[in-house]
Amino acid sequence: MKSKRPIYAQVAAGLFGAAALASALGSLSLQAQTPVVLDRVVAVVNRQAILSSDIDEEIRLSVVDPARSRQVVYTRQQALDRIISRTLIQQQIRHDDLETAEPSPEEVETRLLEIRKDLPECVPQNCASEQGWKAFLAAHDLTEEKVTAYFRNRLEILSFIEERFRSGIHIPQQDIENYYRNTLLPQYKSGETAPALEKVAPRIEEILLQQQVTAMFAEWLTNLHKQGDVEILDPSLEGPVSANVIQHAAAGTVKEGR
Q1: Are the CB atoms for 55 and 76 separated by under 8 Å?
Q2: All domains of the chain, ordered by start, with CATH?
Q3: What is the pTM of this model?
Q4: Residue 99 in contact with residue 165, Cβ under 8 Å?
Q5: How far is CA 55 from the centre of its chain?
Q6: Which of 46, 94, 180, 236 is most buried (most C-beta within 10 Å)?
Q7: For the residues of the chain, what is the DSSP string, one character each?
């Protein structure tokens, strides 16, 4: 049965239908032409790009950082500073072609198992078990592959520090005795018995060794920042890297490698 609507009504309906279709197609075309920003470069370190997503990942991974206090939450600028420092160090390792710095899969696995047992953030979820570890990773939006790569990089840097700064340092006996007399003994109250020098000498030597390595590493890292071609592209992340930031990073890294 043919429509009884006037011919102009049918034409109008057709025109409006075509207009609506054209409008919808135009909207889709506009959406297709409008770029969607999925990620962006926020910094460049010696021609190596650092992405905004890298900062997000660094903040997420900070939960497994052995040197981080549980009360500390990294800002995006602090996370970027850490990424820049690590990038500069790894570039230097590649430049020096230090193959011995690369850890074995067994070393990485051993370190991961230690972290799962000892990290304060992990204890409540019993990360030593596979179920607890998977739940911990899921709760912090992490994957085992990302965490493994994170610790592989850390162990590589620790091996580099050991080879470049720690080996060859000698702590004189006089320095050990001075530390015992001037630093350790005053910590004991009157009437308390302090341990004999011979008993604590190895520990004092290790403390003094760490202090020297930390100072040398911090100075080297400061120079690396000055000499590197580092460009911050995001104004909100700009700001000089303070000596305190580098000193803290160096101290935490060296302490972990104890």
Answers
A1: yes
A2: 41-100+153-256 (1.10.4030.10)
A3: 0.72
A4: no
A5: 8
A6: 180
A7: ----S-HHHHHHHHHHHHHHHHHHHHHHHHHHHS------EEEEETTEEEEHHHHHHHHHHGGG-TTS-TT----HHHHHHHHHHHHHHHHHHHHHT-GGGSPPHHHHHHHHHHHHHH-TTTGGGTTTSHHHHHHHHHHTT--HHHHHHHHHHHHHHHHHHIIIIITT----HHHHHHHIIIIIGGGSPTTPPPPPHHHHHHHHHHHHHHHHHHHHHHHHHHHHHHHS-EEE--GGG-----HHHHHHHHHHHHHHT-
Q: Compute the half-sphere exposure of residue 160: CA atoms within 13 Å on the CB side of its CA.
A: 25
Q: Which two tokens stand for residue 226?
A: 């000055």
Q: Residue 130 is encoded by which pair of tokens?
A: 């596979």
